[in-house]
Amino acid sequence: MDDSLTRPSSPAGLSCYMAVSQFLGLALIAMTGAWMGQYRGGIAWESSLQFNVHPLCMVIGMVFLQGDALLVYRVFRNETKRSTKILHGLLHAFALVIALVGVIAVFDYHRKKGFADMYSLHSWCGITAFSLYFIQWLMGLSFFLFPGASFSLRSKYKPQHVFFGIFLFILSIATCLLGIMEMLLFNIKATYSSFVPEGILANVLGLLLIVFGLVIGYILTRDEWKRPPLAEELALSMDFKNLTMGESPSSSP
């Protein structure tokens, strides 16, 4: 039988919202790069431009890739659950690596310039978001990818995993907004109120961050857009549940 006849197509509207989310995400990256290139001198590691690596990496990792990782279970509806889990984990891993480069860049830049670290609300929120994100990734890896966790333990942890995933995404966007304001006050405080082009660009970037977060949130909270379990997954899930709870897979409920 044709596999396309047995596997449901994407729900109406999902593809449109997904396209909008990707357009907004790429626009965020392009706009951040334009800000650093046009008004902050560009990006380089071994120079005074090292700081500019930080905002670009954080937008790519903690916003765009993190958002895409959250959408994996909405996009890949007909692939096996394990394949979807692996892709979900890999996207989060890439996000962590890129964000780590951004964190190293700002600490290294401050060290070279003799600037103080970890005194602003932006830095507190940022290190909290990054640390919790890493812990969330490790927990997800332990519970859902590596064997060993029982069905009941996975079931109990899953709501917390989903909640903190959305919370960390919101915290990441809020931290980026704080970072934008901090950069503007440090660099163009005297002219910011005069509607200078850099200030307008940064403000638009902040609005795009909010809209991107809203679109991702809307996709994630539509119940009818959630990935339905495939028939074979339901059977495997029941067997796994019975085995980890000490029952025979063939025993009646």
Automatic annotation (TrEMBL):
Required cofactor names: heme b
Membrane topology: Multi-pass membrane protein
Pfam families recorded: Cytochrom_B561
SMART domains: B561
Keywords noted in UniProt: Cytoplasmic vesicle, Electron transport, Heme, Iron, Membrane, Metal-binding, Translocase, Transmembrane, Transmembrane helix, Transport
Compartments (UniProt record): Cytoplasmic vesicle, Secretory vesicle, Chromaffin granule membrane
Catalytic reactions on record: monodehydro-L-ascorbate radical(out) + L-ascorbate(in) = monodehydro-L-ascorbate radical(in) + L-ascorbate(out)
Transmembrane segments: 12-33, 53-74, 86-107, 127-149, 161-180, 200-220
Entry GO MF terms: metal ion binding; oxidoreductase activity
One term under GO cellular component: lysosomal membrane
Span of domain Cytochrome b561: 20-221
Function: Transmembrane reductase that uses ascorbate as an electron donor in the cytoplasm and transfers electrons across membranes to reduce monodehydro-L-ascorbate radical in the lumen of secretory vesicles. It is therefore involved the regeneration and homeostasis within secretory vesicles of ascorbate which in turn provides reducing equivalents needed to support the activity of intravesicular enzymes.
The protein's name: Transmembrane ascorbate-dependent reductase CYB561
